[in-house]
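Lab notebook, bench 4. Still working through the backlog of constructs that have no structural model yet. Next entry is a single chain of 262 residues. Request: give me the structure tokens for it.
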Amino acid sequence: MKKYSLEREFPINIFVIDCNTVNINLDNGSNSEAIKYSRTKKINFLDFIRRYILNESKRPNIITGKKLSRGRVKNLKVTLSKLIEYSKDNKIPEWDDLGMEFYYSFHKWMENKNYSVNYIGKNIANIKLILSDAFDKKILTNTDFKSKRFKVYTEESEEIYLSILELELIINIDLSNMPGIYDTARDVFIIGAFTGLRVSDYKRLKPENLVMFSDVEMIRVATKKTGNEVIIPIHPHVKSVLIKRNGKLPPKVHENSINPIY
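Model written out:
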């Protein structure tokens, strides 16, 4: 599996936030050299976001005790990419200008890109999160992000799902003449559909997650997002997958391999 490197994707120059200078010792074995870097200007908004993603993905949250999930990191990276794109058409304001004027400008820019209300709202929520962190670190003094006008808009989205009949049509498709990954991807998909688990959870299922309770076969797993344990009765269609595979779960298949199939 390809290693995930924030440092590679977000190169960050050395900067100092809480003091004017920093001393770094470089030990070459026999000699030690002190190099002093002076802060000439405050870190800009985009670099602060890069630093935020890098740091928060490595250290546990003081409240939850968890690091940022890969999904959350990906979400923040999307917001950063949109701000970079926005900055090509608009000047990124200085810290104290990150108020309502910026909010309306960025919101209008995204609307002109025909992004959905929920997509815009998700990015605004990420910006509010980052501005809050900058405020706590006394980098930002503008408090407009706390205003009710700095609003995260949402709308009810249409739920798209497959009916039992449609799922059974997928189950009954003859894939005998197709590459084996098609059958494996279908089995993984069926387990996800009939357990209700998130992709991040059913991809992590192992043989030890298959348990018996009062002679009833169950799937027992701690969900990745909340950490809560769930116990799910094994549906007959999931049981059929296990029987076909001699009681074993299908091998892991990366979603990039599954999506083109469906």
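Notes after review: The first strand starts at residue 21 and ends at 27. Residues 1-40 have pLDDT under 50 and may be disordered. Flag for follow-up if needed.
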